[in-house]
Description:
Layout: H1 2-8, E1 11-15, H2 16-19, H3 26-36, E2 40-44, H4 47-53, H5 58-67, E3 71-76, H6 86-102, E4 110-114, H7 133-153, E5 156-160, H8 170-179, E6 185-189, H9 203-213, E7 218-223, H10 245-255, E8 260-263, H11 271-285, H12 294-297
Parallel strand pairs: 1-2, 1-8, 2-3, 3-4, 4-5, 5-6, 6-7, 7-8
Amino acid sequence: xxxxxxxxxxxxxxxxxxxxxxxxxxxxxxxxxxxxxxxxxxxxxxxxxxxxxxxxxxxxxxxxxxxxxxxxxxxxxxxxxxxxxxxxxxxxxxxxxxxxxxxxxxxxxxxxxxxxxxxxxxxxxxxxxxxxxxxxxxxxxxxxxxxxxxxxxxxxxxxxxxxxxxxxxxxxxxxxxxxxxxxxxxxxxxxxxxxxxxxxxxxxxxxxxxxxxxxxxxxxxxxxxxxxxxxxxxxxxxxxxxxxxxxxxxxxxxxxxxxxxxxxxxxxxxxxxxxxxxxxxxxxxxxxxxxxxxxxxxxxx
Length: 301
């Protein structure tokens, strides 16, 4: 598996919190990464909060990863920026400010987050208020607090949209970037999140347009999928949905080979199967057909 992945040239990584549960499981994390040939990490919640709680051990936590060539490519701060409860919204903003301040201590400049929803029960649930003026102003107010912190610390706030959130379409993402013309606000390449059930009939056109519109703004990328009911229902692991993965990987190969690709929604025991799907898709992108040689399947042995 490692040799096959290395030959692709893809910078594949994982969500740290999907591989381990506690900060003291660093050796186990390194073992998983080495076993599957993964080279990058997104350090996200809820593991991130636990790591922050041991701030005095930051170097102890991150140095072994860097020494092993396993870079933390981003902190996944993921907070609801428009939470209707003001106390919660302020707490969310404060946490992301801390992420933007501390990111360089972990060897990265990128802090990823969703934009959030006005849904009062679920931070990933829809709300009719999300596309209203009040929600937009709330998002902008929060960004006015976060972006100066990013500028002071030389970090980047990377926005990840979602069909259930305030930033639910490429059009609204473009509007946000135009309103805040700073290099400290960039985009997570996660096209899956923008494919709602209404876009499924034209999924390839939707995805291709998104990739080209923001190709110079992406700072990290995710690998997952979209279920048959659209992203508002589920975004499962790579190869378990209807997303045009060949189109996506071909874009990465031709336009943004510098981007790390972080596997999402994948447990450790799912990694062999998901990585095999990635390799098969990559071979199709290269026009090699659905190869089944030993280098692809050795993870099952």
